[in-house]
Amino acid sequence: QVHLVESGGGLVQAGGSLGLSCAASGLTFSSYAMGWFRQAPGKEREFVAAISWTGDDTFYADSVKGRFTISRDNAKITVYLQMNSLKPEDTAVYYCATGPVLSGIGANYDFWGQGTRVTVSS
């Protein structure tokens, strides 16, 4: 059974940084693309960042480009999201997900974590 567990969320002031982690189990991690999505209160879930199974390819939503960095450590079966220069509009529950292809579309991901909450105060 596949499990994804996010950690690292919390409260931070605008302009600050947070690092999220997502530990995976129950799958051949190194064969799967990983993505981060977020859902703000009252809004639809949106794509944040994704990384290929090799880690060689990444892409980001325009809203986070240049501020967020996705990475992965296949030996540790973990994907990371480093978030810098945080803004109040980054406040959301952040979810990691895994799927067979590198994609910004949530429907292309097969398994999801429970999410970790990030709150950015102004």
Short descriptors:
single chain; about 120 residues; mainly beta; seven-stranded mixed sheet; four-stranded antiparallel sheet; about 0% helix; about 50% strand
- Beta-strand portion reads over 45%
Give average pLDDT, whole number: 95
The share of residues in helices is: under 10%
Distance between the termini: 40 Å
Shape: globular
Instruction: Report the major sheet.
Output: 7 strands, mixed
Q: Total number of β-strand segments?
A: 11
Secondary structure class reads mainly beta
Low-confidence stretches: none
| H-E string | EEEEEEEEEEE
Write a structural description.
- The protein has strands at 3-7, 10-13, 18-25, 33-39, 46-51, 58-60, 68-73, 78-83, 92-99, 111-112, 116-121.
- The N and C termini lie far apart (40 Å).
- With 122 residues, the chain is mostly beta strands.
How are the elements arranged and paired?
Layout: E1 3-7, E2 10-13, E3 18-25, E4 33-39, E5 46-51, E6 58-60, E7 68-73, E8 78-83, E9 92-99, E10 111-112, E11 116-121
Parallel strand pairs: 2-11
Antiparallel strand pairs: 1-3, 3-8, 4-5, 4-9, 5-6, 7-8, 9-10, 9-11
Describe this structure in a few short sentences.
The strands form 2 sheets. Strands 2, 4, 5, 6, 9, 10 and 11 form a 7-stranded mixed beta sheet that branches. A 4-stranded antiparallel beta sheet has the order 1-3-8-7, with no helix packed on it. The termini are far apart.
